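Backbone shape codes:
===
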Amino acid sequence: QLQVVESGGGLVQPGGSLRLSCSVSGFTLDYHGIAWFRQAPGKEREAVSCLGNSGRYTKYADSVKGRFTISRDNAKNTVYLQMNSLKPEDTAVYYCAADAAVRAMCVMGVGQYDYWGQGTQVTVSS
């Protein structure tokens, strides 16, 4: 059974920080490119960041550049998203995704990923 499970979401004050984790079972991350997406109510799911399996290629959405950092630990089959200086506009359900075809590439597109988690809610509010 292939599983992708996000955790670490919650309610934080503006300017605060959260670290999201994505634990994978049933397959290893070595040959998979990964990405984080988010979806706010009534909006389309959008890419936040991606990371190739080698760690050489990274991309960030303009809205989070300089504030968010994506990382991976293939040995632990775990993906992370460190989020700093959070804004109310960051409020959304956050999803992680992986795909073997992406591999070393860094792809910011929903349709390119086969494996998805259930999402974790991030709410930024005072």
Summary: The CA atoms of residues 75 and 122 lie 27 Å apart. DSSP finds no helices and eleven strands in the chain. The radius of gyration is 13 Å.
